[in-house]
Amino acid sequence: MTLRWFSVISNDVPPEELAQIINKLALPKHTFLDIRVEHDLKIEYKLKYDGKQSRLLSEFLGQESAVASRLITPTTRYFYSNSFPRNVESVLAQMASNAKRKTQSVDPDSPPLGIAPDKIIQGIYDFYNYEPDPSDVKLAGTKILASLRTRFPHASSTVEISFLNRDISYASSEGTFFAKIEPIWMSTFKLEFENRVVIHRIGWSGRPQEFPDESFEAYLTWLEDYLSLPILRDRRLAPTTPLLFSPDAAWTVVHEGLGHPSEADLILSGKSYLAGALGQRITSPLITVVDDPAIQSASYYLVDDEGVKSRGSLIVDDGIFTQYLNERETAYELGMISSGNARAPSAKHDLYVRQSNLYIEPRDASYEELTENFSGLLIGDSTSSVTDAINGIIQAVFSFGIAFEGGEPMGWIKSPFIQGRVRDLFESVSLIGSCVEPAAGYCYKNGAQVPVGSISPFMRLEPTSLFLRSGNNVA
């Protein structure tokens, strides 16, 4: 059982002095103090283009500060915040005396897996000298709106952009000290055209000037071919309907159906259908899934929130379940090594095992091959999803679908919904596309929200055994 001891420190102690204090405590090896002197700066702009001009709907600039720390050993996690000041040396000394002296084989200096694909546009990033500037947000939003206006002059577009800059310092029982600044940008646009709705997310780390990038423009080119199709109001969807998941839809079902069930805290609590499945085939041999915070996407980080250096985790290798996602505590309980997946959205939240940038490896199918003789439903971007991880059941709603017959698009279907067994879904995968598309989103777990990177190709399923429903009719 995790033990937590709550106390507080004053917020006027420089991080360098905290590092010196830590060195006097003789903590167990691989114990880290997470010194979050954290400033969560969130800047949001909402811009709308109505077909004639763009305008700023609202502007919000708010700052939220928190000072907190966690003392982390393999079996004990202590948390405290700045409710009122106390002497930091006495607080840490008492925490150290209560900490269990168990250690874990954790190598914080092991290199990242380095799976990041060359196709991802990474740009040039500066993580240590970046000051948030509202004009940067406005510039990124203007670029996105300009692209939407060019492609869809008769559609109404809303773009929301948020920025989060986290300044976190770490000190370890080995006497090392380091700090990091993580600027993260997130954008969501909503496109409406004659009762058709598209919701799409973009996310990146670093400065926003490079965006929209090539992958975003390619997405708009792809969408342009379908937005003017007629709405099919009477189309019924059978459970055996073949499916073609867009990159965002494919990533969503993998994130929910494979990512969350591989998180070791769910494994240990008996809440995952993948408990005991290491080494077993759980999907089609076409599927390989990597979680990698070293990819400079929306969930890029140098070290996780327990001080473990970021690295990649090969979750599924050609259909074989190969690795859990771990933090220090779950890794100790399982006799494994932390995969660097301990995350918390701010200093005020506890740590949990969380996914970072989930990368689905592309295969060799072109888009023409994916749609050749295809008679089924192409599923667009996701809007909501949830998984019953214990029983391996997934539910997801998507913003749109395109019905195909004989390889030709026939019409637009509103808000398709799927439900079914995760293993049935992934065993039905027959083709995977040759290119990945990076996007972004937020993931919720135990009431806490963190940004996650979405990197996936198209994925075709044929046949399926899923329950399907559209926003117009129920099959």
Which key features would you list for this structure?
single chain, 475 residues, alpha+beta, eight-stranded mixed beta sheet, six-stranded mixed beta sheet, 18% helix, disordered N terminus
Can you offer a commentary on this structure?
- With 475 residues, this protein is an alpha+beta fold.
- It has one domain.
- The chain is built from 9 helices and 26 strands.
- The strands form 5 sheets. Strands 1, 2, 3, 4, 5, 6, 7 and 8 form an 8-stranded mixed β-sheet that branches.
- The longest helix is centred in the N-terminal third of the chain and has 18 residues.
- It is globular.
- The two termini are 47 Å apart.
The rounded distance between the terminal residues' Cα atoms is 47 Å
Structural class: alpha+beta
Provide the β-strand percentage band.
35-45%
Main sheet overview: 8 strands, mixed
Give the SSE layout.
Elements: E1 6-7, H1 15-23, E2 32-34, E3 37-49, E4 54-72, E5 77-81, H2 88-98, H3 134-151, E6 156-172, E7 177-193, E8 196-205, H4 214-224, E9 243-245, H5 247-259, H6 264-268, E10 289-291, E11 313-317, E12 320-321, H7 328-334, E13 342-343, E14 352-353, E15 357-360, H8 367-371, E16 377-379, E17 382-388, E18 393-398, E19 400-405, E20 408-414, E21 417-421, H9 422-427, E22 429-432, E23 437-445, E24 448-456, E25 459-461, E26 467-469
Parallel strand pairs: 1-5, 9-16, 15-24
Antiparallel strand pairs: 2-4, 2-6, 3-4, 3-6, 4-5, 6-7, 7-8, 9-25, 10-11, 10-15, 11-12, 13-14, 16-19, 17-18, 18-21, 19-20, 21-26, 22-25, 23-24
